[in-house]
Write a structure and sequence with these properties.
Oligomer: single chain
CATH class of one domain: Mainly Alpha
Structural class: mainly alpha
Order of helices and strands: HHHHH
Number of strands: 0
Shape: rod-shaped
Length: 107
């Protein structure tokens, strides 16, 4: 992954993506890369533009969630636009009051 990031940085700087350049970028950032991984990456990127590879990768990700914030739960509204939960609470309070009245002041 570090090697890929280094290769993309080189592409942004309009530099050639070579094993030596990737190692230089990693060294400058205080990281070490795996020589075999770097070689495979350079071979895989030969003759390809980094921009095109990124676009292909984004297409492959599709609708995959990348760790963004979770969507807020949807509030339910009745046909008149009021919130259903609030109306339920009001109805429950009225019902409780009616039940209390029916006890004839025992409490």
């Amino acid at each position: 992954m570090k090697s890929l990031a280094a290769a993309l940085l080189l592409a942004l700087g309009k530099q050639d993506i070579t094993e030596d350049n990737i190692k230089k970028v990693l060294d400058a950032g205080g990281a070490k890369g795996n020589d075999e991984e770097i070689k495979k990456l350079v071979d895989a990127m030969k003759g390809k533009k980094a921009d095109d590879l990124v676009k292909e990768g984004i297409k492959k990700l599709g609708g995959m969630s990348l760790g963004g914030p979770a969507a807020a739960p949807e509030e339910k509204h009745d046909k008149k636009g009021g919130k259903k939960e609030e109306k339920k609470k009001e109805e429950e309070k009225k019902q409780e009051e009616e039940e209390d009245e029916g006890l004839g002041g025992l409490f």
